[in-house]
Design brief:
about 325 residues, mainly alpha, extended
């Protein structure tokens, strides 16, 4: 109160504080109340400096964090979006805004936000994957899971797993480098890293999401109706129903032809793959979201389902 009325921390102080002192005092008090779980008071205190200085980016970042801790990701995202608009050159605020967008399940908007700092001519998703930006992929996987897009979520989890596989494979080159350059301390760190690499938080989170999705898909397998929208035939006229049946018949024939083509192509791919592996080594298979979501239905036998449920449950217990 003394700082607000007299511009001093104590009434007996003779030297007055600068005008910004009150602003930063409100700033830290708001964070204090947010830390102890009093979101209402925290919002009251952060609103005061925002009203007096509406162009300060840090204020909106703290406001967004308060909304996030209170459980309102939509308002949290709006606050970070406002902060990002005030300083479009700040990569940290841009990344934070994208993260909050993903937590609000706004995946496309988050990709557009990240595109402001990724390489031109390449999609933001591909560029972030190339740079092994695992915080983005982890948040994407969690967002897809909340939206019920199981295949897309699993695709992101598998991409993270591939990043760690690439790290392990890249370590082989470092072995010879360390011995040649005699960088023994770095070499010892590398050996210790190999033992704990897959205990990294990003891998842990991706594995946890994937395991929970696989358990859900085991208990609730996807059917064809999940991929194709159901058509209401009750309200169709006889002519419309006839057209629909003809269309479905043609689609079935086309699907059968495509399936046969895929089989023939698969046989040809096996031959070419064997030849390529002899020259260049094995290539990574392209991840398909729909195939990943249906892997339990298409590849698991009924005798293995109970075992799968038990082993995955035990794995989650171990991770937690």
């Amino acid at each position: 109160m003394s700082l607000k009325l007299n511009e001093t921390f104590k009434e007996t102080d003779e030297d007055k504080e600068t005008p910004t002192t009150l602003l930063w005092t409100y700033f830290f008090i708001a964070q204090h109340f947010d830390q102890i779980g009093q979101a209402k008071k925290a919002l009251e205190y952060i609103q005061k400096p925002i009203q007096s200085t509406p162009t300060l980016v840090e204020l909106y970042v703290v406001q967004g964090r308060i909304y996030k801790n209170a459980g309102d990701m939509k308002l949290a995202m709006n606050s970070l979006d406002e902060a990002q608009s005030l300083d479009t050159a700040d990569r940290y605020v841009n990344s934070k805004c994208a993260k909050y967008m993903l937590r609000a399940n706004m995946i496309k908007e988050a990709e557009d936000m990240c595109a402001k700092f990724t390489r031109e001519g390449v999609s933001a998703v591909d560029n972030l994957k190339e740079m092994q930006c695992m915080w983005f992929e982890t948040e994407c996987a969690a967002a897809y899971r909340r939206l019920g897009r199981w295949g897309s979520a699993l695709k992101k989890c598998h991409e993270i797993d591939r990043h760690f596989t690439e790290i392990i494979e890249d370590q082989f080159d470092f072995h010879t480098y360390c011995m040649r350059k005699m960088t023994l301390r770095a070499y010892v760190k590398l050996l210790r890293l190999e033992d704990v690499l897959r205990s990294h938080p990003f891998f842990y989170e991706a594995a946890k999401i994937a395991i929970e999705i696989y358990i859900h898909l085991h208990d609730h397998p996807l059917s064809d109706s999940d991929a194709n929208q159901q058509v209401d035939t009750e309200n169709l006229t006889p002519s419309e129903l006839k057209k629909l049946k003809n269309k479905q018949r043609k689609a079935q024939k086309k699907a059968a032809i495509e399936k046969q083509k895929e089989k023939d192509k698969a046989k040809q791919d096996v031959k070419t793959k064997n030849k390529e592996e002899e020259v260049d080594g094995p290539k990574e298979e392209e991840l398909d979201a729909d195939k990943l979501a249906r892997v339990l239905t298409s590849h698991m036998t009924s005798s293995m389902t109970s075992w799968l449920h038990d082993i995955i449950t035990q794995t989650i217990t171990y991770l937690l």
